[in-house]
Task: structure prediction
Amino acid sequence: PFIKVQHQINNKNSLSNNFTRSIVKDKNGNFWFGTKNGLSIWNRKNNSWKHIDKFSKKQKSQVIVLAIEADKNNMWVGTYGYGLFKVDINTLKVTDFYNQLKDKDLIRKIYAIKKDSNDNIWIGGIEKDLISIAPNNKITKFPILHIKAITETVDGSILASGRNGIYNINPVNNNFKIIEELEPNKSSLAFSSIHTVQEDNNKNLIIGSNGAGIIFYNKKTKTLKKLTVNSGLPSDIIQGILIENDTTIWASTTRGLVNVKMSKKDTLINVYDKKDGLASTEYNYGSSNKLDENL
Result:
């Protein structure tokens, strides 16, 4: 069964805007939605909503929140054009993080945020370099642009993905290189961007692309397989991928929600749409998250 969470006209006790780009659960159990009109925070237990639409004194228009990442009692919030903010999850106090830094030449159109296992915060997006923020606020810049997703692998590597494919970053020595087999090319990987990357229990990558469907990359053999419209997907534009278990994944697309069950013998693809109870069949990238084992 699907639960609809959507904006209700003239009702502040609902999602502020149906255009969402990120979903995160905080340690208090509340759900945070990054929308075209700031943040919406849902207390599911009592079905109450709070909203944050004012972030900066310089703000002249609605703030589009593209990325959120939980960090103890705070949320890191990445915006389109206004930079990086920190929000206290208990008081909802908003802090402009860049204001306290000397370096003002930092990424402001933020599409992805990731807290790694060493408490570094990775920030990626467009027009400026990818950065990592150490716990002592030291900034490290990487000449990597056009990033849509950031993932940490089990072995501690950081994968920064986007228009050019997937960069593998070693956070110990800050060396990085692109994964050559996953660079876009017209013949076998005709994508305009990578939207999402997940690592399975075998340390292989499951990748959602804009144009080449779902890509399965075996890191050991450096080989890949694809699921596309020709395989039974409703669209080759994959906005999000969530792994349910070793044999089942979910993928959000621009034409419905897909459940993929894989076995040695075959692959079963089920597509869900509005007649199954979905509020919409067109998903935004970034707007998916596995919040617990059942949600």
Observations:
- The longest strand covers residues 238-245.
- The chain has a mean pLDDT of 92.
- The chain is about 0% helix and 45% strand.
